[in-house]
């Protein structure tokens, strides 16, 4: 029987049918691991480019290595170790050094270095298969057990949540094969020097928060059941609640990297950097010949104190001082820039702002920087240029001055990456970046550019994305995969002319790919987005018709059927809000129920379906007064919230939905506990939706309503004043032509009348 075989096309994986038997295929071909996620990756191409400089982090590395190589002889010995620290404290460097030491000492080690916005490396979907593939290479005797597991259950190769859970994947592909080998009691040469080590670096950079918790829970259960197994797991991350809540337990040894930070390490680090950098810079050499040592010992001490223990800040400050730039006819020398570095605001925001200012005056600066900040996966300089329709040299010209904070490869075909993901956070937070802010409206430009690039290649080959064996250009593959991300990111930011352009391009793409659901759904979603912004029923009718067509092309058990059901449900609900037609609401409820049935427990998107169904049942309750609908909606929202612990990116939706439902419940039952819980939930939702979040106005309105109810029950004037303030802000966020502008006017007017009568 034929098997599905993955093949790679310039950074993307696709599948085609093959008659190669499982026995003939290598385990690498079967598992399809991520090749640039381990400690052996090319760090220049696949960040983080981290390694401990000689003489730094000695105590921290020594402690971890001593633990990693020690045999496990007692039931109470912790198998897991978590090292946590702030941004730039050197966590990845320590992970790399621990892996390298294990390799030098001939101890088996496998690793996964998570990195945000780096495609599959920011997801958990291929973790188990990647670790299993590395394990088979490090301990060849485990390969037969891994093959046997896959032959028994081929669903282990599917993304976790579709057919099997992440815990099952790790159990069947990693833990059990290793356990089976150990159980044979035969001497395994690779384990002679110490236990098998798994290193997971940057766990906080993984987008799949729920699955991270499942991963940790599964590890704890496995080690509890197998207390003497010679296996250790070393994890590094920032302190985030979804990780801390699972790892801060007696079965895990904790290391706070702050305890290991020392000025001596930073001083050693800077000494090595300056010795090397000054030896390569003829301007500095000439200065030293005339004036003596540079930087002076006094300046070095000032730098160390200013840097405050952050290796990433130290590295970036050094690059800022030493890197030549092209921003002026007479660029400042390193000696000129040293005093400027000492005046920088401590932390990374000041450094980011000053570094970016070097290229701010150059052509296409904002386009290029906003693109890098908002891309769903990194692209090379050539792909960025092709996407934006500019020359490669123009991209390089902007980036060459920014190498203190952006990794610019030496060739045009290697992805441009950020030195640290905190730069993306800076650029996408307006309160921090100011006029450097990557505005959501740039998503609209990226959508149009993606459609143009996709069409360019489709005109040459209409079957580019549907036939196996095609060599898909990087920018075309990016456009095909991430169109929806930019459409969703640009919601509310389209100009009428941009909608017209998007519709024209989508229609042409669809004409070149008849009978394919993906281009149908893209066109449908553009119509729906347009209808939402201008209130056009005609556009909404077209969107619904197209979504029905796409759904028919994905009959059960098509793996993407639930997505088509979601899309149809969203469009039907939009039309219900526009026209008030109950038939649309009833059909939306039916469609969302079907989608939820396709997303059982452990499915990655179950919380989305719970929220969707809870929302439409709450809407029907508001129309019909059905208490049964309200009770079910509250139950669904509670389950969704439980699946979205902080800092889950969609937690605010569940908080908002449950809060609104509890306010309605209070209206019926007069139970103050419901109202107090609603107020607490909605306050958290608002904190998670800072301006200019497009959903903020809904949480403001719900909390304002809840506070008005509490004022009416308790007579607290402070609640009434806060409600007025919240509803004023909601109105400001719903300026015409926002479809809820009139509702906000009514809400604020009613509360002002309450205050007048109070």
Task: Indicate the mean pLDDT.
Answer: 87
Residue share in β-strands: 5-15%
**For the report, how would you describe the main beta sheet?**
5 strands, parallel
**SS-derived structural category:** alpha/beta
Q: Low-confidence spans: pLDDT under 50, at least 5 residues?
A: 1-21
Strand order of the largest sheet: 4-5-6-3-7
Radius of gyration: 28 Å
Tertiary shape: globular
| Structure summary, number of beta strands | 9
Protein name: Nephrocystin 3-like N-terminal domain-containing protein
InterPro entries: NPHP3-like_N (IPR056884), P-loop_NTPase (IPR027417), TPR-like_helical_dom_sf (IPR011990), TPR_rpt (IPR019734)
Domain Nephrocystin 3-like N-terminal: 73-238
Keywords: Repeat
Give a quick rundown of the structure.
This protein is of the alpha/beta class and 758 residues long. It is 59% helix and 6% strand.
Structure description:
Residues 73-238 form the Nephrocystin 3-like N-terminal domain. Keywords: Repeat. It is a single chain. The chain has 758 residues and is an alpha/beta fold. It is 59% helix and 6% strand. The protein has 33 helices and nine strands. The chain has a five-stranded parallel sheet. A two-stranded antiparallel sheet has the order 1-2. Strand 1 and strand 2 form a beta hairpin. Helix 6 (166-183) runs parallel beside helix 7 and helix 25 runs antiparallel to helix 26. It is globular, with a radius of gyration of 28 Å. Mean pLDDT is 87; it is low at 1-21.
């Amino acid at each position: 029987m034929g098997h599905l075989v993955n093949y790679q096309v310039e950074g993307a994986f696709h599948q085609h049918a093959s008659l190669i038997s499982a026995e003939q295929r290598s385990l690498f071909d079967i598992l399809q691991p991520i090749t640039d996620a381990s400690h052996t990756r090319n760090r220049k191409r696949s960040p983080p480019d981290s390694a401990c400089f000689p003489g730094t982090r000695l105590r921290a590395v020594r402690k971890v290595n001593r633990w990693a190589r020690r045999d496990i002889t007692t039931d109470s010995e912790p198998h897991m170790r978590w090292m946590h620290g702030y941004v730039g404290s050197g966590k990845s460097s320590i992970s790399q050094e621990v892996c390298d030491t294990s390799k030098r000492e001939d101890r088996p080690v496998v690793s996964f270095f998570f990195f945000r916005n780096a495609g599959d490396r920011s997801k958990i979907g291929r973790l188990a298969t990647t670790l299993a593939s590395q394990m088979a290479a490090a301990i060849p005797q485990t390969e037969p057990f891994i093959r046997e597991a896959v032959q028994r259950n081929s669903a282990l190769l599917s993304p976790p949540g579709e057919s099997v859970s992440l815990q099952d994947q790790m159990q069947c592909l990693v833990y059990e094969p290793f356990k089976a080998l150990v159980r044979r009691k035969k001497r395994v040469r690779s384990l002679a020097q110490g236990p098998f080590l798994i290193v997971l670096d940057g766990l906080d950079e993984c987008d799949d928060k729920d699955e991270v918790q499942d991963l940790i829970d599964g590890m704890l259960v496995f080690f509890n059941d197998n207390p003497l197994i010679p296996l250790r797991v070393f994890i590094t991350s920032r302190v985030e609640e979804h990780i801390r809540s699972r790892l801060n337990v007696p079965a895990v040894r904790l290391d706070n990297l702050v305890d290991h930070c020392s000025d001596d390490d930073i001083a050693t680090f800077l000494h090595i950097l300056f010795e090397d950098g000054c030896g390569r810079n003829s301007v500095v050499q000439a200065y030293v010949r005339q004036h003596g040592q540079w930087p002076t010992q006094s300046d070095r001490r000032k730098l160390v104190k200013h840097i405050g223990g952050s290796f990433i800040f130290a590295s970036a400050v050094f690059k800022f001082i030493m890197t030549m730039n092209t921003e002026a006819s007479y660029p400042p020398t390193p000696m000129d820039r040293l005093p400027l570095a000492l005046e920088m605001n401590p932390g990374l925001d000041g450094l980011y702002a000053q570094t970016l200012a070097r290229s701010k005056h150059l052509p296409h600066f904002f386009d290029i920087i906003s693109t890098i900040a908002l891309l769903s996966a990194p692209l090379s300089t050539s792909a960025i240029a092709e996407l934006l329709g500019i020359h490669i040299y123009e991209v390089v010209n902007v980036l060459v001055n920014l190498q203190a904070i952006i990794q610019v490869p030496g060739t045009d075909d290697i992805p441009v990456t950020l030195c640290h993901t905190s730069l993306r956070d800076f650029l996408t937070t307006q309160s921090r970046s100011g006029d450097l802010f990557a505005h959501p409206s740039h998503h609209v430009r990226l959508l149009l550019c993606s459609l143009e690039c996709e069409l360019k290649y489709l005109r040459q080959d209409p079957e580019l994305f549907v036939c196996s064996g095609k060599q898909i250009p990087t920018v075309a593959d990016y456009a095909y995969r991430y169109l929806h991300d930019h459409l969703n990111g640009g919601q509310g930011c389209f100009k009428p002319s941009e909608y017209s352009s998007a519709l024209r391009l989508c229609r042409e793409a669809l004409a070149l790919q008849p009978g394919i659901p993906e281009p149908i759904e893209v066109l449908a979603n553009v119509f729906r987005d347009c209808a939402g912004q201008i209130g056009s029923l005609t556009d909404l009718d077209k969107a619904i018709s197209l979504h029905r067509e796409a759904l028919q092309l994905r009959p059960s058990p098509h793996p993407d059927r639930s997505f088509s059901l979601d899309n149809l449900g969203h469009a039907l609900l939009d039309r219900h809000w526009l026209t008030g037609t109950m038939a649309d609401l009833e059909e939306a409820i039916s469609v969302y129920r079907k989608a939820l049935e396709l997303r059982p427990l452990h499915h990655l998107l179950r919380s989305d379906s719970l929220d969707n169904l809870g929302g439409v049942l709450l809407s029907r309750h508001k129309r019909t007064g059905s208490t049964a609908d309200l009770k079910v909606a509250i139950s669904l929202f509670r389950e969704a919230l439980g699946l979205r612990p902080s800092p889950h990116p969609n937690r605010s939706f569940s908080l908002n939905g449950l809060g609104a439902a509890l306010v309605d419940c209070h209206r019926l039952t007069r139970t103050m506990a419901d109202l107090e819980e609603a107020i607490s939930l909605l306050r958290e939702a608002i904190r998670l939706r800072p301006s200019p979040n497009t959903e903020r106005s809904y949480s403001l309105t719900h909390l304002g309503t809840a506070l008005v109810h509490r004022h009416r029950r308790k007579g607290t004037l402070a609640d009434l004043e806060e409600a007025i303030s919240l509803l004023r802000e909601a109105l400001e966020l719903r300026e015409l032509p926002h479809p809820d502008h009139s509702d906000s006017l009514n809400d604020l007017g009613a509360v002002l009348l309450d205050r007048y009568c109070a």
